[in-house]
Amino acid sequence: MSLLNPLLIFGSVAFLIPLLIHIFNRSRFRTVEWGAMHLLESVISQNRRRFRIDQLILLLIRCLIPAILAACLARPVLTGTGLSGEAPVGLVLLLDNSYSMEAADPAGTRFSVAVDTACQLLADLPRGSQATVVLSGGRPTLLFDRPLSDRQSVIRRLRQLQPGFGASDIAGSLQLGMEQLQSMTTVRRQLIVISDLQAADWSVLSAGPASAIQKQLQASSIPSELLVLPVATEQQLSKADNAAIESIELPQQPVGAGQEFFVRARIRSYASKDYTAAEVSLTLDDQPISTVQTALKAGGTADVLFRCRSETAGSHVLTVSLSADDLLAADNRRSAAIDLLDSVPVLLVDGDPGTQPLQGETDYLSVALTPWTFGRVPLTDLLETQVVPPAQFTDALLKTARVVVLANVPRLTDQQLEWLNTWVRGGGALLVTAGNRLDLDWHRQKFWNAGTGLLPAEWGEVRGAGGEATSVNSNATGPGSPRAAKIVSQRSEHPALAFFNDPANGDLSTAEIRRWHGLKSAPASQPATAATLDSGDPLLLEHRCGEGVVLQLATAIDADWSDLPLRPFYVPLMQQLITSLAVQIQPPRNVQAGVPVVAMFPATEPVPAQPVPAQAQPAQPEPARDGTGQRTPAEHLPTVTLVDPLGARSALTTRPQGRWLLAESTATGRPGVYTVTLPDGHPQHFAVQTDSAESDLTQLDATRQKQVVEQLGGQLLRSLQEYLESDRRRRHGQEIWPLLLAGLLGLMALEVMLQQRFAGVVR
Amino acid sequence: MSAPQILSAGDVSRLSGLQLLAKQVVEGFSSGLHRSPHKGFSVEFREHRAYVPGDDIRTIDWKLYGKTDRLYIREYEEETNVRCTILLDCSGSMKYRGSRAGGLSKHEFAVRSAACLAWLMLQQQDSVGLVTFDTRVRRYIPPRARPRHLKHLLSELSIQQPGDETNLADVFHQIASQIHRRGLVLVISDLFGDVEQLMKALAHFRHARHEVVIFQIWDDDELDFPFRQWTQFTSLEDANRRHLVDPAQLRAAYLQRLAEYREQLGRGCSRQRVSLVPLTTSQPCADALAAWLSIRRRAR
Predict the structure, then answer these.
(1) What number of C-beta contacts closer than 8 Å exist between A and B?
(2) Interface contact A47-B253, CB threshold 8 A
(3) Are B279 and B218 in contact (CB under 8 A)?
(4) What secondary structure letter does DSSP report for A646?
(5) Per-residue pLDDT at A223 exceeds 60
């Protein structure tokens, strides 16, 4: 109970007025000397008691009248929360815009229902209220920097929202909402969560964060409320039939243009019924490739394998679509970006050429790298090799090469070394293999240069069996000869060797390495070890130089020192090695939502090789102020265009990195295909994926819902209408002044009536 | 016969004033100024006599003509002397002076009325006596018909001051035993007292074959109880009896009680064949005369 005009209640002191009047009248009496006392006395004696009671009743009524009038004017309100009237409310709306909200609802989609609900809640706010919106899909984001008092603009923004983000981070968005709530300046604060209470999102909210939020709610000095308003009713979700494409698996190895590759799509059903003929189709850059019909059991998964090829190199988008009758259409499509490589030019510098086939140092390697060409099979090789002797190694060759292999090269001229240095540091990939022709001094002094050169480690002493195999078929590993080393079979994360983590792809440890160099690295630079021999010596070292990478193989690449070329895994190993060198420096094209996409492309004009000064970042293009002569490269850097899944364009500035230019965008909250158009017009596609757990539309069951909401210290609402009504009642309270006024008028009429009756007025 | 009393100057002026007033009233009355339905004196009616031309046309009895279709005139005769005794109540309750009475208390009004009646009757050669009483008889002046007797009566009337309580019944009994010869008894009082006792006393008078006419003097305030604010009513007869009341509460009950009382009196009086004439002090004194005369006429 509270009063709208509390001061007026003091007017009830006016009840004293009739009392005083009564007393005053009694004291101010007339004296009349009366003759007919016998009549008067008989009347008085008979009715004395009645007169007293009547007087008392009238006095009481007369005293009540001003008191009730005062109470009436003070406008008492029966309220629930103790706050009265139209106090402004600070409202934080937590809107679930994960892509499960795109599920169909009888009234549209769940998201449209949620937006309508939110707009209704906003429209119902009292004047002077503040509101802000937290979107929980993907990463929790605020729709506005700070709470707005203009409800109409909030409603407008809400109506423009599109759903389709990733899974909801309920805990994070609740936390963000609580922070926003604290920043409100109103007396009454509410955090209303509008969500479909999906089990996949909400069951992650464990007791710990939930009770932390509850503590926050209770600890704040201004009472705050947390209300949860589900948008989907349970009966709708009992038939939460949904099938989704869970994942697309692309080939792990780089694929070249013209090469056939396989795409595996996994479909998962969250439905309670079987899909007998679900159609799954694959498109490449919107060109249909094939359609497959598959049966999908309730709650089960199905894998579909597509065979695909494209003649054009570059970035392509593969999209798998599922047509099945389900509630959520957003998860029936999934895209992946694939980069089809043009043929990778590899320059093989043969330090020990031979006249016979397979005598040269790089013969085995070139066969391994271009099997189809050698085999004259009408399939395209990804790699293009060019073999040159060291004398013919020139700068011009470097321009077109992506990978350079120095196989058993004794030495290089200083000029050649200079070119190589520049090329590697600018982003080239180099493989150096051992052999018997190595000029160890040159390698040590110039190539390794105590760790500052290109070579990762110094060639140490030769270990293993002495002598070379004279024929390719001799295996000089009879008993009595020094034991050959084997490659330690271990799980490797190196892109070249990760292929062999699967034993079906080959077992590296079957190879016998007869001779190898021990490798000694400088203490200052620690190259990474990709493979080790069981003697403890490293087999393959990796070392980054500037923007490029250098690999050093402790043994020879041909069959002189090992039987690697004779092993069945030699071909894939070499291919992996070279292609991983060629492509590893590209940023990934398929990322998770929220991770920035980075487009990398070669710079078309020469950019100074020295590191870019820190202040010339693309975000702050500033003109040269002090005139020191250092021109900011930003003016010369091209910009690229980014198109997001909704079709919105934005420009990205680039920054140089070695011989490449990078363009980055962090606005990847929305899953879908993002396309960056390079200055030369070629597109680079990026596929932003999201966790497919959101496709499970199952809602929390009723008891669990209550439990979660209780843990949060909030209240679960059943429907919007119910909430609006109870809120109105609570806000406005029950004004009881009409009741009091009716009582007052009744009392006044009663007083008049009683007075007349007591006085016995006879008409 | 009582001893002559020494009159004060005020008494003399009152006396002369009263005398003058009574004279004026009666003369005005008799000369037709007073609005009364009865013209002429009320003298005894003796018989009808056949009309002879030359008689006063005013004396024709038209009612008889209507009945018998013959003209008769009424012949009056001088009434024989009536022995009239005026009983004047001088108890305290007669002191009441209301606001509408023109400044007259009930007693003053009663005195004037008594004076007028006495003058009138003496002019008609009736004998008039006076008894003033409160709890007991104060003064008894036996009836005489001599003109000088009027002065006696008037002086007595003018010096009487009301006071003390009323005890009508005992006084009446007393007076009834004192008046030996039958005659007319005029009671001028407010009759505030026990009705039953009063009726017994009146029965005494009637038993002695007196004709009794009671002029009950009311004040308007007593009749309609107009008081509004809180009032302390103090008894005029006994100063210790006082009541502080809210008159608005009482009014209805009082009026009802008054009506009951008056009805009781009326019934009692009519049973005893006593004429009860209510007079209010706001009326002119001549009304008393008019009322009395009409009674006289009806009686004969």
Answers:
(1) 106
(2) yes
(3) yes
(4) T
(5) yes
